[in-house]
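Thanks for the sequence, V.! I ran Transglutaminase family protein right away. Repeating your input here for the record:
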Amino acid sequence: MKFEIQHINKFQYESEVDQSLNTIRLKPRSDERQRLLSYRIAITPSSLTREHTDIWGNTVGTFYIPEQHQELEIQTTSIVSIQRAPFIHRIQYSPEMQTIFHSQLFYEHYLPYLKFTHFTYMTENQLEEVYHAIGHAENPVLFSLNLMQYLYSTFEYDPCATDVTTTANEAFVLKRGVCQDFTHVMLAVLRAKGIPARYVSGYLYVDEHSALVGDIATHAWVEVMIPGIGWIGLDPTNNVEVLENHIILCIGRDYSDISPVEGVYTGGKHHLTVKVNVKALNHL
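Predicted structure:
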């Protein structure tokens, strides 16, 4: 599948601001299953963007606007090609994979994705509640699928219940939230079980016949490291394996590693409007 993504972030300030330094993570990744074919960015007021790659392999752009302005618009247009086939239900968890999974080398290599963070901490009582519901399957593939099903059936998708500062602990108490909350809770439980897992931000293509649910801007899901296989994407908000409808932007330990736009400026408060349009190109 091939997609065109148009993403507009428009900041409107209550008074004129200046010395605006911004960091953006809006350039889709390329890997063995997703290719970035083109990427354009337009910034108003005009500014040049300097790019670098962060520790997680994401492309990070920075730009500076010294002059006074009352609006800032960042518009990106990306075209990506994705080829993913259903895979996780065909994985046979072998004794060799189990040996790798329990090895010290495996643990040390994926340590950043095994540690709790501010967003992915849950209490022992909360974890025990999950274990009581889904069991303690030693097979990380089976455990991950059971956990995804549990979150999908137990939590309610509610855009009004949480915000970007909500932690896994808080979302679990509410049993409701958006894709970011589903993802943080799933990460917390997987890491507590010793399964390396990372946060993925991106876009979700939803056509008129699709039952998939996602935020109007960016979407979020989990990738699980399966020894001998690699990273496998799971979307707890929709209880599905990540396939061609999911377009990867960035990866990290939690939301704080992949925030799409961050800025520092001199001046008053602002209002942000986000518009995202994902269009399938194969049918044109």
